[in-house]
Amino acid sequence: MSQITNSVHTAGAILSIDLDVIKSNYQRLCQELGDVPCAAVVKANGYGLGVGPVATALWQAGARTFFVAQIDEGIELRAVLPDADIHILVGFLHGSDDAFRQFNLIPVLNSLDQIDRWKGRGRCDVHVDTGMTRLGLAPDEVDQIPDGLDIDVLMTHLACADDKDHPLTHQQIRTFRQVRDVVAHKRASLANSSGVFIGPEAHFDLGRPGCALYGINPTPHQENPMQNPVRLQGKIVQVHEIDTQSSVGYGATHALEAGQKLATIAVGYADGYLRSLSSKGVVYIGEQEVPVVGRVSMDLISIDITGLDCEAGQLVDLIGPHNPPDRLADLCGTIGYEILTNLGSRYKRIYKGE
Ligand SMILES: *Cc1c(COP(=O)(O)O)cnc(C)c1O
């Protein structure tokens, strides 16, 4: 199909997402969970990768239980997956009765007030706060949950899941076991992506991974068991042969010598290429690593291609096998989640394995 706007010819960069890799990451998580079923967290537009294609792929891979953060995300997901169980982490917000009913959504109730307002409306989840102080009932409130509440998933969330030796992790698991033993429910769930890799004591009845599906390393101190489904190729729009001492970009932060060669790429912070990657990011041209030089601007970055043969129109890897989201995140002091969820809307998106 040819189109004029948002094509490989008109976009500044091409974002390729391999849905087969996301499916195989789901299978890998299922394998880690053994007999325990695996839900899929697809909040924030499927961690930036596009909730439609991502959720469809996960459904094809066997996922039936989906979590999103917001009610509007649940409504959007319902149009994609008519038969999925869709759970809303933010809970039963005031005035959202019609949305839950009309789109058959399940709220993760996080306070006695939400429970009181939901009671009598059918299936729900309950979130218990075992140590994160973010969402959920305090453990000493659970004895006030009314009899007859139809609780599907009883859940909690780890604050330090990627550090399985953290004392808080063990304490949260202990507290959650006590709560599970006194609250009637169908399925207990604690493990996010990192939690899945803690081992069976964290699995309970349902895994709840997000980031690992999308290739983020759930075991940051060990080799990544997941594969990266993302490739971002930025387009060179101009090549500069430097013939006199000068500088590049806003603030003139990076000095240039005669003989250097730069390329300007049509991607900037407006596309989610974080400004904190200024003079820190790395790009790949084939197997060759090339540094980002000077400030990232709104629509452009500059790379030092001294010694390389490059031309306008050529694509370079801004994210790929050698510089996956976790590596870019390390370079600028953030986490892979933030790199993914910032991926911009101007890219030409191509889905493989659809
Ligand atoms: C986002 C989220 C998850 C998924 O976490 P990952 O670290 O991405 O695997 C699971 N549970 C809750 C409550 C969340 O907010």
How are the SSEs ordered, and which strands pair?
Blueprint (H helix, E strand, L loop, with lengths): L12 E6 H15 L6 E2 L1 H5 L3 H10 L4 E4 L2 H10 L4 E4 L8 H6 L3 E4 L2 H7 L5 E4 L23 E5 L11 H16 L4 E3 L3 H4 L33 E12 L4 E3 L5 E3 L4 E5 L16 E4 L2 E4 L9 E4 L10 E5 L5 H8 L3 H6 L6 E5 L2
Parallel strand pairs: 1-17, 2-3, 3-4, 4-5, 5-6, 6-7, 7-8
Antiparallel strand pairs: 1-9, 9-12, 9-16, 10-11, 12-15, 13-14
Pyridoxal-5'-phosphate binds next to loops.
Can you describe what's shown?
This protein has 354 residues and is of the alpha/beta class. The chain has helices at residues 19-33, 43-47, 51-60, 71-80, 97-102, 112-118, 167-182, 193-196, 325-332, 336-341; strands spanning 13-18, 40-41, 65-68, 85-88, 106-109, 124-127, 151-155, 187-189, 230-241, 246-248, 254-256, 261-265, 282-285, 288-291, 301-304, 315-319, 348-352. The strands form four sheets. The protein has a seven-stranded parallel beta sheet with strand order 2-3-4-5-6-7-8. Strands 1, 9, 12, 15, 16 and 17 form a six-stranded mixed beta sheet that branches. It has a two-stranded antiparallel ribbon with strand order 10-11. The model has no long low-confidence stretch (mean pLDDT 97). Bound molecules: pyridoxal-5'-phosphate. Pyridoxal-5'-phosphate (PLP) binds next to loops. Pyridoxal-5'-phosphate is lined by residues 41, 43, 89, 157, 192-193, 208-212.
